[in-house]
């Protein structure tokens, strides 16, 4: 059980009483962002909404506690003073529970009733250039990644990989991106949870497949589509003017979509464990195709395609 925070306690002041322990965040090369796992519908024994994610805890008074990562902490501190602040969870600093440090932020589901939730991983790649460099410098064939590859496509491994029963991390990461809409559209569904659909979409690749998944998520509601479309267009406008966005490589970050039966919708940027600042001389437009060395991530290309797909789901007027 998490300690109870008295209602009168200022969350920011509370978080500043705790300092993160030494070396609290693993190197970027070893960080793994697990898929979103959502209990749906909410448990009747718990105050809705109930959200349990690996490395997360639902905190008190509308907060969410996420296992501490210094990279993500630094991003949130910057974002709290950037024009993107309305599009990310409000950040309240670091707290400690049972000797474990957590980043504390707003629980984005607090004001929704039995919400439908979708996680879209944005960008044309989900690995940092740094990860490629490290994997090449210290190549280590991985049995676990070979097993994942075979589970998704038994024909994918080469003859040499079959003999070793292992693949290099660089090979696996780049192969994995070709299976979904990450490379074709610049985003992919990670998970959807609502009454119509509760699954992941590792093999959802074509524009038609993506549109079908989105239609199931919104349950063919034009009102919900309009709500998301308005918010995504606002987000795009702010992203194009954001100092934070142009000076960071945004990899592995997601857009969290939430709506409920009242018609309320919300879209937020989440997951910044692989978002890293660029060298002072470099900026990104987030649309230029990625070539190793240019650091481009394809985030805005994915957002453009997502907006276009939603717009095409609306009836012609």
TrEMBL record:
Gene Ontology MF annotations: ATP binding; inositol hexakisphosphate kinase activity; inositol-1,4,5-trisphosphate 3-kinase activity
Catalytic activity: 1D-myo-inositol 1,4,5-trisphosphate + ATP = 1D-myo-inositol 1,3,4,5-tetrakisphosphate + ADP + H(+)
Superkingdom field: Eukaryota
GO cellular component, one term: cytoplasm
Gene3D superfamilies (UniProt xref): Inositol polyphosphate kinase
Broad EC category: transferase
InterPro entries hit by this protein: IPK (IPR005522), IPK_sf (IPR038286)
Leader sequence segment: none
Pfam families listed in its UniProt record: IPK
Keywords annotated in UniProt: ATP-binding, Kinase, Nucleotide-binding, Transferase
Any single GO BP term: phosphatidylinositol phosphate biosynthetic process
EC number: 2.7.-.-
Family: Belongs to the inositol phosphokinase (IPK) family.
Protein's recorded name: Kinase
Organism: Seriola dumerili
Native organism taxonomy: Eukaryota, Metazoa, Chordata, Craniata, Vertebrata
């Amino acid at each position: 059980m998490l300690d109870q925070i008295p209602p009168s306690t200022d969350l920011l002041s509370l978080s500043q009483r705790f300092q993160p322990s030494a070396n609290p965040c693993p190197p970027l090369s070893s960080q793994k962002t697990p898929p979103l796992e959502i209990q749906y519908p909410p448990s009747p024994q718990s105050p809705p909404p109930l959200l349990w994610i690996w490395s997360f805890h639902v905190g008190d008074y509308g907060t969410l506690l996420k296992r501490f990562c210094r990279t993500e902490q630094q991003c949130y501190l910057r974002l709290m003073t950037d024009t993107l602040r309305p599009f990310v969870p409000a950040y309240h600093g670091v707290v400690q529970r049972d000797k474990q440090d957590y980043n504390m932020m707003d629980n984005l589901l607090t004001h929704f009733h039995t919400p439908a939730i979708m996680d879209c991983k944005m960008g044309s790649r989900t690995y940092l250039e740094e990860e490629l460099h490290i994997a090449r410098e210290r190549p280590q064939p991985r049995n676990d990644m070979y097993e994942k590859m075979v589970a998704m496509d038994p024909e994918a491994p080469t003859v040499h990989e079959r003999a070793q029963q292992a693949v290099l991390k660089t090979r696996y990461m780049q192969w994995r991106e070709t299976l979904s809409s990450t490379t074709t559209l610049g985003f992919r569904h990670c998970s959807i949870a609502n009454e119509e659909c509760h699954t992941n979409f590792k093999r959802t690749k074509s524009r038609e497949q993506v549109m079908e998944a989105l239609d199931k998520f919104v349950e063919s509601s034009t009102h919900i589509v309009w709500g998301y479309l308005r918010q995504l267009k606002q987000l795009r406008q702010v992203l194009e003017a954001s100092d934070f966005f142009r000076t960071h490589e945004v990899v592995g970050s997601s857009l969290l979509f939430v709506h409920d039966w009242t018609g309320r919708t919300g879209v937020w940027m989440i997951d910044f464990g692989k978002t890293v600042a660029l060298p002072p001389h470099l900026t990104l437009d987030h649309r230029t195709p990625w070539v190793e060395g240019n650091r481009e991530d394809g985030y805005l290309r994915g957002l453009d395609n997502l907006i276009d797909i939603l717009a095409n789901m609306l009836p012609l007027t």
